[in-house]
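Why this split exists: single-chain examples teach little about how molecules sit against one another. For that reason, every record in the complexes split bundles all components of an assembly together and asks for one structure covering all of them. Below is a record exactly as it appears in the raw files.
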Amino acid sequence: MPETAKAPDYYKQKYWDWFAPVYDISVKLNLSPFGGEKKMRRQVIAFAGPMAGYKVLDACCGTGTLTSLIAEAVGSSGAVTGVDMSPRMIAGARKKVKDSPVVTFQGANIERLPFPDEMFDRSFISFGLHEMPEAARHNTLKELYRTLAPGASLFAIDYNLARGIAGFGVKTFVKLFETEPAYRMLLADTLPREIEQAGFSLKARRMLVGGVFQVFHARKPSGAGGGDGRE
Ligand SMILES: C[S@@+](CC[C@H](N)C(=O)[O-])C[C@H]1O[C@@H](n2cnc3c(N)ncnc32)[C@H](O)[C@@H]1O
């Protein structure tokens, strides 16, 4: 399969390749007031539950911090695929997983995944959806749906408009440092509706690190496509 694919118009290739070498330190610093990045990522893995032996997709994997935790969780009988458009993000991710035999990376547009239907037992997308305009988010959620086995689960992590001072902080941060679609998505809280519009049923919504981030658990119905996958 090709290592790179044509980027969509909204995708800032140069920006992501430039950001890649300093991405981890920037995330660490930004999350330190909220208990730290490790805590937030561990909360996500705990919320997702056991996945030993699963085939898992990490969409928009970036530098692979979550990918490496998923790899630990699936163990030697599982498999993890990280997908991102930025070759430099993927280069950082490869280093992080230290050539783990259960992890592979693919350079691809998440809106057109180069994988067959129903291939994965579980999918994650962490801080990827807010990077896209609404139509691209819809294409992405449909692709995540298509590539999941019936009955299998998606975990989508993103910003949340927390209450009080934390909410003011997250709103200001997204306004200043993220895109206009990200700000609109945050203010109007559109993700639950968008996830359901892609065909998923929303099982749970859990706040992370004081409510400035959130994780959605969404499930592809068991009847979809006939089979019954692992939730
Ligand atoms: C904010 S980073 C999140 C990285 C990682 N998931 C994390 O939790 O730290 C967003 C990532 O999404 C990737 N991305 C954005 N749009 C994409 C698309 N259409 N296809 C593939 N990757 C995309 C970017 O290259 C970047 O690495």
